[in-house]
Amino acid sequence: MHVHHFSVSLAQQAAQDDKFFRNKLISLLWFGYQRGQNCGGLVQGPNGTIESPGFPHGYPNYANCTWIIITGERNRIQLSFHTFALEEDFDILSVYDGQPQQGNLKVR
Questions:
Q1: Residues 6+ apart with CB under 8 A from 67
Q2: What number of CA atoms fall less than 13 Å from residue 92's CA on the CB side?
């Protein structure tokens, strides 16, 4: 049995702190190496929560989840991971500043 889950809270910030991403669009990709169930969505507004399917229990094998986070022009996005567990060697989380393209990759 695989137990993988995560919960992310996000908040828009107007502060000029380097901890926050500067652009108004963040793509958050989370998936296993093989295709399976798709999940994800669009998050807009001053704050929100993203959870894997089945949270707090394990997510489906081969899940492919993409969340797009959009905020206003002068706002920044802060990601806070409160609970995070992936199946090592199989699953990854990627954060892009803008569209999910290699040049926009911030964290993997």
A1: 27, 28, 29, 30, 40, 41, 42, 43, 50
A2: 10
96, 30 in Cβ contact below 8 A? no
Residue that the structure tokens 């695989």 belong to: 2
Domain chopping of the chain, boundaries: 5-107
Place of tokens 């609970």: 83
pLDDT digits (tens, 9 = 90+) for 16-31: 444 444 434 444 544 4
The pTM for the full model equals: 0.61
Q: What pLDDT, on the 0 to 100 scale, is given for residue 32?
A: 45
Contact status, residue 97 vs residue 71, Cβ threshold 8 Å = no
